[in-house]
Design goal:
The protein is of the alpha+beta class. The protein contains six helices and four strands, in the order αααββαααββ.
C-alpha cells in the first residue's frame, strides 16, 4: 500500500513542479542550468552573511560608518561543483582580514554541494533546519553567530522561492544527466507527454 503524502510533501512537490516546468533535465542539471544558478546564489548569499558576521554589522548600518573596516566590493572566483564550474563573487573588506569559511582562499572545489543546495530549496525547511543544513555545508566547526548570519542571508531567498504561486501540473521523476547513480529529481511533465526517462 502506498503511503499518503502529508501537506508539506505535497507543497514541496508543487514547488518543484513549478520550478522545473517546461525544462529538460539538461536545462536543470546541465552546465549553466537551474542547479548552477541556485548554487551560485546560495554560495554568494552565504559569503555575504559571513562578511556581515566578520564586520559585526549589517550592510548600510549606521554603526559601520567611519568604523574602520567595511565592505569593499567583490572578487570573482571560479569554483568547481560536482556537475560544473561556477564563477562566484566573493565579498571583500577594506582591511583584507575577511577569510571566508565556506569557500576558503585558494579553494577551487565545492564537492557534494549540489545535493545540499537542492535539499535546501526543495524541503519545506524551518530556520532551524536551514541552520543545521548550513553546518553540514561548512564541514568545519563554526560559531553559532556565523551560522545565524548566514542563515539570515540565505533564508530570504529560500522563503521567497518556497512561497511563490504555483500552477497545477503533473510531474514525473527524471534521472540526472550524466549520473551513473540512481539519483532522481522531479521534472515537470506536460499533460499527454511521453514518459521519457520517468521512473
Amino acid at each position: 500500500m502506498a503511503r499518503k503524502k502529508d501537506a508539506t510533501e505535497r507543497e514541496v512537490d508543487e514547488l518543484l513542479d513549478s520550478l522545473l516546468e517546461g525544462r529538460s533535465p539538461k536545462e536543470i542539471m546541465g552546465r549553466g542550468g537551474l542547479l548552477d544558478a541556485l548554487t551560485k546564489r546560495v554560495v554568494e548569499r552565504a559569503l555575504e552573511g559571513e562578511l556581515t558576521d566578520h564586520l559585526g554589522y549589517e550592510k548600510h548600518a549606521r554603526e559601520g560608518r567611519n568604523g574602520g573596516n567595511s565592505r569593499n566590493g567583490r572578487t570573482r572566483k571560479r569554483v568547481k561543483t560536482d556537475t560544473s564550474e561556477l564563477e562566484i563573487e566573493v565579498p571583500r573588506d577594506r582591511d583584507w582580514t575577511f577569510d571566508p569559511e565556506l569557500v576558503r582562499k585558494g579553494q577551487r572545489r565545492l564537492a557534494g554541494f549540489d545535493e545540499k543546495v537542492i535539499a535546501l530549496y526543495a524541503r519545506g525547511m524551518t530556520t532551524r533546519g536551514i541552520q543545521g543544513h548550513l553546518k553540514e555545508l561548512y564541514k568545519v566547526e563554526v560559531s553559532p553567530s556565523l551560522i545565524s548570519a548566514v542563515t539570515d542571508a540565505v533564508l530570504a531567498d529560500v522563503k521567497a522561492w518556497q512561497g511563490r504561486p504555483l500552477p497545477r501540473r503533473s510531474s514525473r521523476y527524471c534521472r540526472r544527466p550524466g549520473s551513473s547513480s540512481a539519483s532522481y529529481i522531479w521534472c515537470a511533465a506536460r499533460s499527454g507527454s511521453s514518459p521519457g526517462s520517468s521512473a
